[in-house]
Write a structure and sequence with these properties.
single chain, 277 residues, alpha+beta, eight-stranded mixed beta sheet
Amino acid sequence: MDIDSNDMDMDVDRDFNLTTSVAWVAPPSTTESSSTGIYDLYNDGEGVRVVYNWKKDDPSARIEPFYNRWPPSCTSSRSCDWICIDCGLSPFMKSLGPEELGTRFKMDYLGLKEEFNAITREGGVKVTPEMIDALAAKYGVLSGKWMVYSKPESVDQLWRKVVRVVAFDRGYGQVKVSARKVLDDPQCHSEFSASSKEGWNGGVPVPDESHVMCVDYTNKQEVNELRKALRFRAGVFWKIGFKPDVYTLLGVYKGNEWGLRPSRYHDLDYQSGDRAY
């Protein structure tokens, strides 16, 4: 299985039956966000995101309205890019303290890219996963995610299970799922909401598309533990891969010039029942 949406070869069938309909949910709006308090709305480098308002009231009571408002199978990519839940830092990250946390996760994207480009420009240098690991540690770009793909007909149920694992079983971390792609998806989302909900349609769904769920990590032990939780508590028994954010930053996608796999860890061996990658 390919591990990143940019690695997937998505062939759009131009003869697709355009009468296919989906009961799209209404697009997000800042007014609804403020009045209901169910979600927050952000537009940043990751696109338009609807984020579960986790810190207000009882999260277990408020999660059901959020599920019902934003089922991934009926949320059009014309109105948002990601549906997200952020449950905060892991115990490991909290244990570091503010100063050490800031040093370890300084997120110096510019410095990392500059050094990587300088190394690769020289030529004759073999780019390896270990080299990228070292650069990621040096510049504090240590986040990443397990990539879980699902078809629209099963994504809503799987999304609920994965959220339960992250939010309620573990009680920390972040998880997001992509909105459903449509054929006439605009190149960018410059506004949070459509001008009018009346008569709005979410576009024609892309045939054979997959949704991707990204489940973040902070260290290797948590990578392993989270994979086990996804397998045994959410039913993700198929092979998935883990992609560090540094891979995305440096353009390590399928068919990259360095011959690297586009994911860092792979659950290739479950014979003993105690390995996740």
